[in-house]
Predict the 3D structure of the following.
Amino acid sequence: MAGFNKVVDNYQDALEGIKDGDTVIAGGFGLCGIPEGLIAEIKRRKTTDLTVVSNNCGVDDFGLGILLHDKQIKKIIASYVGENAIFEQQLLNGEIEVELTPQGTLAEKMRAGGAGIPAFYTATGYGTPVAEGKEVKEFDGRPYILEESITGEFAIVKAWKADRYGNLVFRHTAMNFNPMAATAGKITVAEVEEIVEPGELSPSEIHTPGIYVNRVIKGNFEKRIERVTTKD
């Protein structure tokens, strides 16, 4: 069964094959559940002209935000981008293309892409700029817009546990976009906190089956808190 072992020993092998111009789908929500080391490896490689699909673009000095310093991102498809001053400046300067997408629609775009569904209808966004140029169809008297699904050359996700076959378990709110993102990449790389042997994960606790995952790497996570809130 050695051929089923998807664990790689270093970040270079984890992202082998990524190239300029690729579409990268990244799991995470804010700074919660982000594949920190994989993002850092993309920065180290200086891979550029990327289209990044993620809920948001991190902050100035952490998460996907670090890819903005050297202008590695050409386009981002996201639902929220309000925490990043560098991102704002590049947008105002016309240095980055932004496609804002309603949050639930973005999640469904990833899920549908992973399921082989090319497009779907949703009522979300009808009558707003989101719907401009998109097909509209009525169902039961209510208008819906046609949204295309999303796939990418790479998907990078963060999980709590994985076995060597690539089965993944996410923990609490770090689940967020990660399960959908994991299905939508031609090559999916999971950065995890713990790797266990096959059989140690109960089938009922597996969130993403290993069939979707190509590579697994054990990461060291800072787990930075985006907004620290304390109470006396």
